[in-house]
Amino acid sequence: MNRQRSFIGFIVAGAIALLVIAIAGFYWFFAKSPANLIASTSQPGAAIFVSKLSPVMVSLLANPDRLQALEQEEELSKLKTSLFAKSGIDYKQDIQPWLGNEITLAITTLDIDRDLENGQQPGYLLALSTQQPEKSREFVELLFSKRALAGANLAVEQYKGVKLISDNSQPEQDLLAGAVVGEDFVLFANDPKVLRDAINNVQAPDLNLTSSPEYQKATKQLPKGGLAVAFLNLPIVAKWQGLELPEQLYNSQIISLALNPKGLLAETTFLTSSEIVPPSPPLSKPVGALQYIPASTGLAISGSNLSNLGDSDVAKLWRQATATIYGSKEDVVSRLAKPLVDVQKRWGINFPEDIFSWVQGEYAIALLPEKEQTTPHWIFVVEKSEAVEQGVTRLDAIASSNGLSINLLTIDKQKISAWTELTTATKKSDVKEGASFSIETKVRGLHTTLGNYEIFTSDLETMDEILTIKDNSIIDNPNFKDSIAAIPLPNQGYIYLDWTKSQNLLERQVPILKLVEVLGKPFFNNLRSLTVSSYGTDTRSLKGGVFFKLNNS
Fold first, then answer.
1. Looking at the domain assignment, is residue 551 inside a domain?
2. CA–CA gap between residue 532 and residue 177 (Å, rounded)
3. Domain for residue 144, yes or no?
4. Residue 120 and residue 122: Cα distance in Å, rounded?
5. Are residue 240 and residue 309 in the same domain, yes or no?
């Protein structure tokens, strides 16, 4: 392919990469220059060009050249060089003088020509705000002139007062169409029809995204000063993936990226026409069960009331999200919490029926990565109640039915109930009589009572660590404290993942993550941990956030 003809591919990829790099870089000098990093608006102006039937729109609401700190690591310079060198464009000379404070990328339609016989070809629209319209017009003319010199056949047309330029020489290749609309935006698309539709959307306001009731409700949820925003039309995203969802509770989603002195907070709101009932009363402080989770934990989940989790709106959201993202009902949590899934299979139990059903108070679940092992240790802490006592008795019965023995042990004067299994090991004997045998006891799980909590662990070493934890629990961990401080109260609890401790485990369980890390290398190199929580009181929306704690913050 002629290198001049694939410019739209480079610029679309570049827009995405720019967002990723922006995420990695915003935090670095937040404390040094906060005023320079506050977006002038929390809503993208380019939404007027985008159809209300668009599946997704992503916007960066700050000029990339404000990220001067990144120049020290040359990440931004490398991106500019690799992105524009192949198109014969000099970023500093041709784009920097006129580029404004917004870059928006949207998938405007699932199929440009709506012809199913020739396959699905999505329409891509890239909108760059301009602060000097004349210079941006010169840039568009320059870009297409260079393509013409490289052998492209150009087409020029006037459409409703706007000059459109496109390369239509080889339809089977990546096309490029461009225009300067009014005094505010430069538009690029992969087909002239996408540009014509964008202009129609401006001149017929009932067609564009800003006229969508869903979009209007979503933008009301945006915080002030967000630096990036994304809007997803979930039913159309599902259609794009070729899915027919059995459960379509949520209609749209909006995501906003905001700065925090300790990192980045990505807030998201899912909107629905149905009334949402929270799975449990909101919590005004972290649950006490976390005091028994060691600071060495790689993954910790805490909250209250697991008894109705399966039928909650959060669970319905998870099922809809996994089906949309993976194209199936595959549960990525099953991969992340594989040790617990293995326990479920080995014991022949069903977590919702045999455990979650009797957890109506506080709980905490944790995985502790072990360098020498591929399978991490696990901890389950639950607040005591009559239902919990009955549940423990039931688990003891299930253990016995699976051939396990229930033995009482003592660790540091603490009585422990252990589920054990006897196995035989064979050794070749030096004598002629044959082999000798030894009997080994394998611990399959343990539980004990501490204070007002029942604690379950996978092994003796983990139980011993809990008993000697003292002031070294996760609740005393400065990194954890900083992370949950960024999450609004009250909330439904936390999912906390220490990236530095869990990276190897996650890469083994979710192989595609390695590809994501390559694409977002500057971000993942600086990622320390992430914390997820659900909060908000609107009965027609589900609001939550992901806080990214970054190194040196």
1. no
2. 41
3. yes
4. 6
5. no
Bridge partners (DSSP) listed for residue 408: 417
What does the longest C-alpha to C-alpha distance in the chain come to? 100
- CA 382 from chain centre, in angstroms, equals 28
The string of DSSP letters for 328-358 reads S---HHHHHTHHHHHHHHHHT--HHHHTGGG
Chain position carrying tokens 């190897």? 504
The whole-model pTM stands at: 0.79
Burial 412-423 (b: 16+ CB within 10 A, else e): eeeebbbbbeee
**Residue 68 above 50 pLDDT?**
no
Q: What is the residue range of 52's domain?
A: 7-244
Sequence letter at residue 73: E
Residue 183 in this model has a pLDDT that exceeds 80: yes
Number of domains forming the structure of the chain? 2
Domain shared by 141 and 240, yes or no: yes
* pLDDT level of residue 194 (50, 70, 90 thresholds): very high
Secondary element (H or E) of residue 179: strand 176-181
Structure tokens at 399: 């253990």
Please write the tens of the pLDDT for every residue from 141-160: 988 888 888 777 888 999 99
Which burial class, exposed, middle or buried, applies to 102 when counting CB atoms under 10 A from its CB (0-12, 13-18, 19+)? buried
Task: For residue 205, say if its preceding peptide bond is cis, omega within 30 degrees of 0.
Answer: no
Separation between Cα atoms, residue 340 and residue 553, nearest integer Å: 33
With both helix axes pointing from N to C terminus, report the angle between 75-85 and 7-26 in degrees, rounded to the nearest 10: 170
Shared-domain flag, residues 190 and 303: no
What is the tens place of the pLDDT at every residue in 414-454?
Answer: 999 999 887 776 665 554 555 666 777 788 889 999 999 99
Q: Judge if 436 and 381 occupy the same domain.
A: yes
